[in-house]
Amino acid sequence: MRALTVHPPESPPxxxxxxxxxxxxxxxxxPSAGGGAERVAAEVYSRLVAAGAHVTVVTTxxxxxxxxxxxxxxxxxxxxxxxxxxxxxxxxxxxRIALQLIRxxxxxxxxxxxxxxxxxxxxxxxxxxxxxxxxxTAHIAGFESLAQPWRFFAQAHExxxxxxxxxxxxxxxxxxxxxxxxxNERLGLDSSVRVVPNGVDHSVFHPPAQPVxxxxxxxxxxxxxxxxxxxxxxxxxxxxxRSRRPGVRLTMVGDGPMGPGLRQRVNDLGLADAVTFTGLxxxxxxxxxxxxxxxxxxxxxxxxxxxxxxxxxxxxxxxxDVAGNASLIDHERCGLLVPAADPMALASALExxxxxxxxRARLAEAAEREARRYTWDHCARETLDVLxxxxxxxxxxx
Length: 398
Fold this sequence. Notes:
Helix content is 40%, strand content 17%. By secondary structure, the chain is of the alpha/beta class.
């Protein structure tokens, strides 16, 4: 998990966005958030602005983040993440603010960044009131591996609020084929969904110039310490692995409501000398270049940026077999997939790559080749194509 940093485009963007006015919605659009949807939004919007678009983002996050040409408007929110152990919030007055911005900015198109975000609800309501077309980007697929009661709440939200958002949208973007298939199955969407994969900045995430020689094998976790990212599964798997491979080490990059419990569990298992908690980091690329294996034990995903970044950095990936991870990892070719929420299966897969260095190298090299297909410039071009396809000159909103 890292601070929200937008780097210059990898190459001059081939975009024609001059004069396009976009009113965007993204709950946690803030440097300290570091989540995938927020990073995707920031990377895409920076390129749209560079190409001449005007982008305003409605967010629940606090101030402190700015980017030339992108205006950030905060709405009041009650953050429930600490209480629930999963990222969640309730907004106040977001629809009213969205309508005020529509009157003043006269956007050609609205863009909401998640089926799960509260500001997406405001976007849909504002679209219905104003007649401005709405594009929705979906980032997550599948909740079957979540523990109860979170599975029930997530699925209920999807079938009620998510269905409302999807049916209000003029076009839906899915970040992977797995997300598109999930939307079709759960919400009955098919031809209206366009797959626009996430990207990776290859100028930042790349293999080290020289191979790093270490006496031990370094495992790495990057992400929020929340239930759906599976950090507790990893700690249990690591304990089993250490009993068989005592030289292995684990670095946990990130933070979140599960942090204190994870640290306590590490102490209780006698692993404090083998597990390092770094907190938030703005140098994930450096952590990846110092790692041998990225572990992604998520219970639900869309197209995880940490996995893409590890692949581009030529780091072996071991991940849970959920839709988003499986959209990137071809099992046994460019990584290993294991059943979600199964510490022993994860420990066994990790032992394979820890013990077998040639296997680890082969998987990492194949992953790097695969990652070359994904860039932020391509993601921005494809997103812009959808926005332009539905955009229209706004009429006056009374």
